[in-house]
Amino acid sequence: MFTRLYQVIADAGEHSDLGPTRSQVLAGAHGRLLIVGLGPGHDLDHLPPAVTSVVAVEPSASMRHASLGRVEAARARGVEVELIDAVGEALPLPDDSVDSVLFAYVLCSVDSVEQVLAEARRVLHPQGSVCVLEHVRAEPGSWTERLQRAVSVGGIWPRLAGGCRCTQDTRAALVGAGFHVESLEARRLLNVPVVNWTLIGTSRP
Fold it and tell me: What is the per-residue pLDDT across 113-141, written as a single tens digit (0 to 9) for each?
């Protein structure tokens, strides 16, 4: 049920500011791109020419099934796409084996943000780039941040949104994992107040 709901939301997002923002974020991707949490695969529709191949991890069988049409469409455009049943905390990839990593609406729901980021840094080439499109905690003390905290009481929001934590401080997590964040900007993107503050841009080790 969550996969179907997420597909509807993602499809609607493609006709809003989210579609162009996906393209903006992925403009920094190149070479072999790792997508952590492929979901229904909308990011594959926004790959820049500099991306030559994609390895995508997605632990949800229903999400993998939902992505197959976009996976095949990307392959038809000449992009090699490998879809793997795996989690970000344990990437089945060698060290320094990818040139770019994409985190798009995934870090809020992983079991361990720290482990996922550590794994991303392990498999990323030292000169690689991390493309970030993640909803995050709003400015502390703002009414949006208070709303985020309110809906998180008792785990209400995570139960409704597939394990999503709307109070995630992704910028701090990236810094803690050893990534530069100066080029990342936070701005309102979606029309849902709980998840409208979004961290956007490209980071590097």
Answer: 999 999 999 999 999 999 999 988 888 88
57: left (phi over 0), alpha (psi -120 to 50) or beta: beta
Distances (CA, A) of 114 to 62, 84, 89, 176: 26, 21, 9, 8
Contact 201, 25 (CB under 8 A): yes
- What is the CATH number assigned to the segment(s) 2-203? 3.40.50.150
Question: Residue ranges per domain, the chain?
Answer: 2-203
| pTM check: above 0.85 | yes
Give the residue among 111, 124, 113 at the shortest CA–CA distance from 171. Answer: 113
Cβ-based neighbour number of residue 6 at 10 Å:
19
| pLDDT digit string, tens, across residues 157-183 | 767 666 778 788 999 999 999 999 999
CA dist 174 and 169 (Å) reads 9
